[in-house]
Write a structure and sequence with these properties.
Number of domains: 1
Number of strands: 0
Order of helices and strands: HHHHHHHHHHHHHHH
Largest sheet: none
Radius of gyration: 19 Å
Number of helices: 15
Length: 310
């Protein structure tokens, strides 16, 4: 296991793709591909679109539209990935299934960012500034929080009503984490806007995009978010997920398939970051999808597959 993990780390650092075989034979094809996703997550965010388009294409999913990368890749060396990142990654992987809550997983995954190269934020800034739809959305200004009272005033069967039911019935917070406690305003633009906005709309995108709040679809929506705006945290989620699953080919096949489908879905969906949601609160979800050009996610596997197997 240690040798395979060392090879994974070397591949994450180098960026060699799965088409370059491992001469030692230690690493499986799944581990090699997972390492390429780790490379874009931790060392080269400017390669996200190209690598994920290829990831989806291997599984037969169309990736419409132009490549959505940041600045040009020519001559751009990967960022340094310190050993501390891999220590934290494997601690997270080894703790999977140990009773960790979704919030605890979110916090542990976000904490991986503390181990990244100091140049990572500038690289991510460049990607975000060039991602389709980001500049227009961020130009609208700081997103004001939604309120349950605002949602409660909408008619039954409307987007706002369905959104409120999702939040209340599941005991969710309206925003996944407290944006003020995270000091998101202090981040450079547009990362301040992006991080606050996705906390605000994550569960809303579940509804409009057709993603269930199951284990499999939480992974899927991370791929959708990554395709929509190059979200660094979503890339980290996919890297952790695939690194964990790469020792189980069947599980890896399921997860990689749903990730590829959701990435393709996110690439085909018009940018949603800048949508004025209160203006469509009173409309049914179907009408909102039609207005925004959104089709519901077609999952290649049952949304509750992992819950059934538990």
């Amino acid at each position: 296991m240690a040798d395979a993990r060392s090879l994974y780390a070397a591949r994450v650092r180098s960026g060699l793709g799965p088409e370059t075989p491992d001469p030692s034979g230690i690493a499986s094809p799944e581990r090699l591909e997972a390492a390429e996703v780790g490379h874009i997550a931790f060392a080269a965010p400017w390669k996200v679109a190209r690598v994920m388009d290829r990831f989806a294409d291997r599984r037969g999913f169309a990736v419409p539209g132009p490549e959505a990368s940041g600045a040009g890749e020519a001559g751009q060396a990967p960022l340094v990935v310190p050993s501390a990142l891999f220590t934290a990654l494997w601690t997270l992987v080894d703790g999977a299934g140990g009773g960790r809550s979704a919030l605890e997983f979110t916090q542990a995954t976000a904490a991986l960012g503390t181990h990244l190269d100091p140049g990572f934020r500038d690289a991510q800034l460049d990607v975000s500034r060039n991602w389709p739809g980001v500049a227009e959305a961020a130009g609208q200004g700081w997103p004001e929080p939604f309120t349950l009272a605002q949602l409660a005033s909408a008619p039954a069967g409307s987007l706002a009503s369905e959104f409120r039911t999702l939040i209340v019935d599941n005991g969710f917070d309206l925003e996944v984490l407290d944006r003020d406690a995270l000091s998101l305003r202090d981040l450079p633009a547009p990362l301040n806007y992006l991080n606050a906005r996705i906390l605000q709309v994550h569960d809303l995108w579940h509804l409009v995009g057709g993603y269930r709040t199951t284990g499999l679809h939480e992974i899927a929506i991370s791929a959708f978010q990554l395709a929509q705006f190059g979200h660094a945290y979503s890339a980290w989620v996919l890297a952790v997920t695939l690194a964990s699953a790469s020792v189980e080919p069947v599980r890896y096949g399921v997860l990689s398939g749903v990730i590829a489908a959701a990435w393709s879905h996110g690439r085909a969906t018009p940018p949603l970051l800048g949508v004025d949601w209160p203006s469509v609160w009173a409309e049914p979800i179907g009408t909102v999808r039609e207005r925004l050009g959104v089709t519901a996610f077609e999952s290649p596997w049952p949304a509750d597959l992992f819950e059934r197997a538990a």
